[in-house]
Amino acid sequence: MYGGGEEKVIFKFDENWNLQPLKGDTGKAYKGVKDQEEVFLKRNSTPFLAALSREGLTPKLLWTRRTGNGDIVTAQEWFDGRQLTKEEMASNLEVIRILTHLHHSKSLKSMLKRMEGSEKSAFDFLSEYVTNLPRPLKENKLLMKVFKYLEDHLPYYQPSHYVACHGDAIRQNWLISSDDNLYLVDWDYSVLCDPALDLGTILGQYVAKEDWSDWLSLYQTDRVDYLYERVYWYAGMSLLMQTKRSFLNEEHDELNRCLLRLEEIFSA
């Protein structure tokens, strides 16, 4: 697994393990070292992880333990690797293969349902965005223009057709190992939803708009036009959510990047 940065260790674990905090917005991930063994440790990760590991979409799950204070700690295989670049997100065909596997997996959908995984409609995402929206974002003309478009063009997708989605398929959650195995990690936002959620996140943030149709034709061979409309909507929704997150985390470069992408996509 890949990580960087530092943060305070805030939970007690087996004293035989040396815990090295990893950078992230959850404060729950660590590199664990014991003797010659290295693992990726995470507190209170989704129970969905075991099923994802079996299907090879995320690094191998090694074990799960409960700590004295009630935390559930999972250990996954550690590997030397890195995040995909923005260019690789647009060109790496393995990204499409993994999403196709995820979205078409009946077993993963069934597992997420049994775990009472949340279902989200397009309207649910709009509502989440406006909840506690900071005033500067409310007053931004571009953001309000995009929000109004999304509000007026809500896509409908039959809930019975919802699939297992990652829910936050940004490039920081795509890790490639030194031997070129690609994994999708950090499944805390996994949800039953329109698959256009994951597709829109990737196309909206990393793929030139003129290449969307070709990219989608590799994911799905029929009715690309219908899929395109929904992906367009979720591309805007994903960027709005990322803009809000970046503003709250004071990530100014990321905030400006998202604003530029929104301007490019919704300039017409």
Secondary structure blueprint with pairings:
Blueprint: E1 18-21, E2 29-34, E3 37-43, H1 49-54, E4 61-66, E5 72-77, E6 81-83, H2 86-91, H3 93-104, H4 106-114, H5 122-130, H6 135-138, H7 141-152, E7 163-165, E8 174-177, E9 182-184, E10 191-193, H8 196-206, H9 212-219, H10 224-248, H11 252-265
Antiparallel strand pairs: 1-2, 2-3, 3-5, 4-5, 6-8, 7-10, 8-9
Structural class: alpha+beta
What overall form do the CA principal axes indicate?
Answer: globular
Query: How would a crystallographer describe the biggest sheet?
Result: 5 strands, antiparallel
- How far apart the termini lie comes to 41 Å
InterPro entries: Aminoglycoside_PTrfase (IPR002575), CcrZ_PhaseVar_Mediator (IPR052077), Kinase-like_dom_sf (IPR011009)
Pfam families: APH (PF01636)
GO molecular function, one term: transferase activity
Protein name: Aminoglycoside phosphotransferase
Provide a descriptive summary of the structure in words.
This protein has 268 residues and is an alpha+beta fold. The protein folds into 2 domains: 61 residues; 183 residues, Aminoglycoside phosphotransferase (APH), C-terminal lobe (Aminoglycoside 3'-phosphotransferase, Chain: A, domain 2, Alpha-Beta Complex), CATH 3.90.1200. The protein is 43% helix and 17% strand. It has 11 helices and 10 strands. The strands form 3 sheets. It has a 5-stranded antiparallel sheet. A 3-stranded antiparallel sheet has the order 6-8-9, with helices on one face. A hairpin with a 4-residue loop joins strand 8 and strand 9. The chain is globular. The chain starts with 17 loop residues before the first strand and ends with a helix. 33% of the residues are buried. The N terminus is likely disordered.
